[in-house]
DUF177 domain-containing protein
Amino acid sequence: MKFTIGQIKKNAYNKPFEFDDWVNVSELESMNNDIRTIDPVHVYGTVYDQGDEIIFSFTIEGEMILPCARTLVDVPYPFEIKATEVFSESIYYDDGEEEEEVHPIDGEVLDLTPLIKENILLEVPFRVFSNDENVTSHAPTEGEGWELVSEDSNEKKIDPRLKKLESLLNNDEKEK
């Protein structure tokens, strides 16, 4: 989602400039996070031109698929994020403004897409749980190097390497 400085100055001269668009953020799926899939997000808001500062006030709406913390099944997670980003044209940009998250303008185009992705990543919940009653039937029960063992199905399984020792124990019991 890109805006040119000229477009903003022209459209936000007397009143706030409104925008409404869909942004593809599927790149977030390949990053090292819990997002399994994410559809294009709906971004809408207003742009204010206040002297040397350009202020974007916008809302990001969408849905991402995250793993359930208990069973690892897919859980749809709808979100709505309200954000404000400030860009400064001032050549007197100091360190105090850096702490306030003011972005310096470099060039003639403002790209809001990295900031949209950043806001989405900041809002990913620590863990989600599925509300489905039959979630255990959809959950994986084994994988590479692991297997789910419950108390009901916990039978005595003998390691095949120790199978011959079992026969020796059975012979000892018969002799007594």
